[in-house]
Amino acid sequence: MIPSSRRFNFPLPASSVTISQQISESANQRISESANQRIGESASQRIGESANQRVSESASQRISESANQRISESANQRISESASQRISESANQRIGGPTDSVKHPRPRRQTGPRITHPASSFQLPASSPQHPASDPPWEPGYRHLHCSGELAERARVALAALARCALCPRGCGVDRLNGGRGACGVGADPVIASWNVHPWEEPPISGTRGSGTIFFSGCTGKCRFCQNYPISQFGYGNRVSIERFAEMMLELQGRGCHNINFVTPTHFAPQILAAVDVAAAQGLHIPLVYNTSGYETIPALRRLEGVVDIWLPDAKYADDATARRISGFAGYVAHNRAALREIYRQVGDALILDAAGIAHRGMIIRHLVLPEGLAGTAEVLRWIAQTLSPRVHVSLMDQYFPAYKVLDDPALGRKIRPEEYAAALDAFEAAGLENGWMQEYDETCGLDQV
Questions:
Q1: Backbone angles phi, psi at 52, to 5 degrees
Q2: Is the overall model pTM greater than 0.85, yes or no?
């Protein structure tokens, strides 16, 4: 058995961290007639009294009481009470700081329903670039762009383009500057559902002090199994000014976060540019993480070049018909692969770390394994290794559970099985991928209980 101090699991990463407090265990089995109560009045029962303590007084003025019921208590309590019972008390030990940087052997498997792995599996290799102590202090690229005025100019051009929005591949052409709502469901003002310290990302992202996640409302996707559907599909959240958005980043930096982590950011990329410029003028200096579905356009990604330090894109599907049926994405595979190639062009396959193992620059591709092989895992991983690089870091996730519209779906209405995740690990190895993270499987909730 692997010592718990050497294991790693990130229970629910930000891109799929759920408003699980709005989806109780019974909802995971089937949405009963009381679903509205779980999303409405009973949400206040799932959001502890300490939530208001975690939100500063200034934030409380900006966030309505009803929104506080819809927003998860904190990063530590985004998992519902029933899910918390399934996650061992040692989760924080698994989440902890980055594990030792070593070159990994290929993963071994044990028979039976639980899959465990060598302590060094899918960890950062010893050769991962670091900033030597003698180097000048690291500074994110957006600082230079701010000082030169280029960041403000990029923001101006990007915001003006919202008059005929083409940010995502849907290219809806809606005038979001004059009251229109795009295919993403939002207009011109940033709509933020939650912002807090999040300890459950991959080790180089969360580190020891957490990642400063900012969850945006709306989405360019329509995933039938979305675990964040109150935010992504129902639009729960609060409209904020660019100035308030910048304040949120500075407050998260003040709370010690290693980075600012924009979750589902595609439809608010122009507003991000504008807010980062404001925040940089007031001292923002930590890395920016762009946590995206991977359904992006090349022009939008190029406007972010030198602004985003760490890219955290999904590679969700290998088949367009499946992507459209399950997630409403038209032409997902081509757009996703073009986006991944562009991100790779910008940052390459090296994950740049500081002396403490915290990421400063690079990309980590996430892939969620789905039941019945619907994600096309083997093909996705093979494409990454062959087209980008076998050294690209991949986070292979087993945490799928049915939610939203798929509770009665014959394929998606269940969690993945042990053998399905084992097959995904085999595909990782067969593709020749060298770096990344896995999760240790447990039938009850997709997490290993140590």
A1: -65, -25
A2: no
